[in-house]
Amino acid sequence: NPLDVKDGKFSLEMIGERANAETGCPLAEGAVWELTNLETGEIISSERDIDVLNEQLLPEYGFSISIAQSDEPGDNLTNSNGGIDVRYVYDDPSGVAWYGGLTDDATGLEIPPFLTPVFNFMKTSSGEVDNALDEFSAFSSLGERTFYPFFLCDGRSAADVGNFYLTPAWQPSQGLVRNFTDLSALNNVDLKFTNDKSQWSRCVVVETASPDYVSAGVNPIGNASNMSLRKSASVDKNGQPDGDGEGMSWFPGYAIDVETGKRLNIFFGENSVYSGDFTEFLDNGDPIGGDMVFNPTSQPIAEVPGASEFNLDPRTFVMGGQHIVYVTRDEYDECASLRDQISGSTFQRVNAYTSVTWCSMAIAPVGVSLPTYAEGAIPNDLTVKLRADNKYGVESAFNISAPEGCNAVGGLPKYEFEITGREATDVAVADDDNILSDVNVVPNPYYGYSSYEIGPRTKTVKVTNLPDRADVTIYSLDGKFIRQFRRDERSVSKTGANPGTNRTQTSPDLFWDLNNNVGIPVASGVYLIHIFAPEYGVERTIKWFGVNRKFDPIGL
After folding, report:
1. Is 223 helix (H, G, I), strand (E, B) or coil?
2. I need a surface site. Which of 308, 310, 409, 425 has the fewest CB within 10 A?
3. How far is residue 334's CA from residue 329's CA, in Å, rounded to a whole number?
4. Where are the beta strands (DSSP E) in 469-508?
5. Directed axis angle between helix 336-343 and helix 346-353, to 10°?
C-alpha cells in the first residue's frame, strides 16, 4: 500500500523441522515464517503454515507476504516440470549477441530431418527412453533452450542408441551418475560471462570427444577418455602454459547460487580431436578443440575426406569445437576437489559429476568470432539466469557418499530485504503565496462548447487545481455578483464509513454550468472569477470570456 508502506530493513526466516529425504532437505509440513524488523526488533509470525498459499496483510508496514511450499523439479510432471526460465541478459543490449548453443533435436536450426538424431541428446519425447523423467520435454524448451539439466542428458553408447549423437553427458557412464542424483538437485544460478579477468574462475577442462571418435579412427590428445581431464598443459588467463600440470584453465566468468549466495565451481570441456592435423579441415585453421581455452566458433560441419555427415560420421560434426559448459552446486574452490575426483577412480569421477546441475553445448552464432584470452575472450558481458522450482528447506549435498536421509549443508532459509525511499510523506506547501498560482479556468475563451460536456444541453466550464477549501465567486465585468461556490472537500479525505476511501485524493476541480445563482444562463461576455483560499489567506482573480449557447427548449 503506497500510502502506508514504511521504509525499513527486514529479515524473513523459515521456522520448522527438516523432512527426512534421501535427496534434498525440504521443510516438513507445518513450517511457518517469521518477519523481523531489524531496526526496531519487532517480530511478526505467520498466522498459517506454508503448506498452503496464504497472503498475510501487514498494515502497519504497508505490505503483505505470500509464501507457499513448492514442488521440486520432477515432482510433478506438468508442462513445466518445475522449470522456470533460461534467460540471457547482456550488459549492452545493443552489442553483439555472441552466445549460441545447441538445442535438443536441433530445435530452431535448419537441418535436414536425417540429421535430427545427431542432436537428440535428451530422450524425453513421447515414446523415448526417458519420457517418464520429463514427459512434456519441458527442459528441452526452457527459455533460450540452450541450457538443460545434466541429469536429463543421455549418455548411452551409440551402439545402444543406434546412431552417433552429440551429448554433454558422460559416455558410457551417465547411468551411474543418475543413480545418485535427480532433477531436485537443480539450483538457481546466475552465470556471468565477463571480459574482466579478475572475476574469472579457475577450472578443470574435460575431454568431450566421445568413444565414437575413436571408433571413427581419430584419437583425442593423449588418448584421453570421455569426461576425463584434458591431456594438455594447464594454461593461464592469457591461454599460455602456466606450469600447473595438466587439465586446468580459466573459465571467463563465474557462477553464483542465487539462493545461498555462494560462488560455485564451473568448468568447460572441449573436443581435442579438432586440433593438430585435423585443423586443416577447420574454417580458421586454429586448434579450437585442443587449446585449453573457451573459444567456441560458429563452424557446424567440416568436410573431411572419407567422412560425410550423411552417414552420421562423428568427424564431420565440429559444432564449434564442442565446448560444453558445466555448472555445479559445489562451492567454489578453484575446482581443486573436482580435479582430484575426475583424476581418480571411476567411483570418484561419478561422485564429481553428481555435483553438475546445468550444462550447455556452446557454439557461436554465424558471423561471430570470440576474442582471444589475451584480449578478454568475451565481447559483451552476459548473465545467463537459470531458474527452477526449489522447495524451502536447507541446502543438501548430492554425492554417492551421502548418508541415508537428509545430508544437510547450512541452515534454514533466511532472507533480508530493505525498503528505501518508498514511505509516504504529507504534502508540504513550500510557499503559501503561490498556492493558487496553478489555478486556471478552462476552456478560456469558451465558444459554446467544451470537451467536459456530456450531452447537447449541458454546458460546462472547469476551474482547476483548487485546494480542498476554496471560495470561488463569479462577477460580471462591471462588478455585479453572478454566482458563488463554497468548496470544502476536506472531510472527503479524512473521514468516511468506508476505510478504502479514507485516503482517497479529492478532485482538484470545480464545474460551472454557466448559470447564475438562480439558475438563469449568463450572457456572453467577460467575467471575473475570484478564488480565495481561507486556510492560506491568499486570493487570485482570473478573467474569463465566454460565448453562451442559445436556449434550447427541446426535451423540456
Report:
1. helix
2. 425
3. 13
4. 469-476, 481-488
5. 140
Tally of CA atoms within 13 A in the half-sphere of 104 that contains its CB: 23
Q: How far apart are the C-alpha atoms of 135 and 77, rounded to whole Å?
A: 6
**Count of residues for the chain?**
556
The pTM for the full model equals 0.77
User: From CA 449, how far away is CA 549, in angstroms rounded?
Assistant: 8
Euclidean distance between CA atoms 123 and 131, whole angstroms: 7
Read off the pLDDT of each residue in 60-83 and give the average, rounded to a whole number. 90
Amino acid in the structure at residue 421: G
Distance CA 171, CA 225 (A): 9
Rounded mean pLDDT of 234-249?
97
CA gap 346, 173 in Å, rounded: 9
Give residue-wise pLDDT tens across range 127-185: 888 988 998 999 999 999 999 999 999 999 888 888 899 999 999 899 999 998 889 88
Give the C-alpha separation, 329 to 188, whole Å.
9
Please list the alpha-helical segments (H only) found in 210-325.
Answer: 211-215
DSSP codes, 311-357: GT-GGG--GGG-EEEEEEEEEPSTTHHHHHHHHS-HHHHHHHHTTEE
- Give the count of beta carbons closer than 10 Å to the beta carbon of residue 458: 12
Give CA–CA dist 106/111, Å, rounded: 8
The label of the residue with cell 463569479 reads 474
Q: How far apart are CA 174 and CA 152, in angstroms?
A: 10
Residue keyed to cell 462548447: 449
What radius of gyration, in Å, describes the C-alpha atoms of the chain? 35
Question: What count of other Cβ atoms lies within 10 Å of the Cβ of residue 273?
Answer: 25
Q: How far from 267 is each of 133, 314, 370, 431, 539, CA to CA, in Å?
A: 26, 24, 18, 64, 74
311: phi > 0 → left, psi -120 to 50 → alpha, else beta; which? Answer: alpha
Burial class, 290, CB count within 10 angstroms (exposed 0-12 / middle 13-18 / buried 19+) = buried
Name the pLDDT band for 493 (thresholds 50, 70, 90). Answer: very low
How confident is the model over 286-338, as pLDDT tens digits? 788 999 999 999 999 888 888 777 788 899 999 999 999 999 999 999 999 99
Residue linked to cell 537459470 = 386
Strand pairing class (510-512; 461-464): antiparallel
- Give residue 24's pLDDT band: very low, low, confident or very high (50, 70, 90): low
Closest CA to 21 of 413, 404, 402: 404
Cell of 370: 570470440
In the numeric block, which cell numbers belong to residue 433?
A: 503565496
Amino acid found at 171: Q
Average pLDDT on 85-109 reads 92
C-alpha cell at 133: 523423467
d(C-alpha 331, C-alpha 375), whole Å:
28
SS3 174: helix
Q: What is the grid cell recorded at 295? A: 573459444
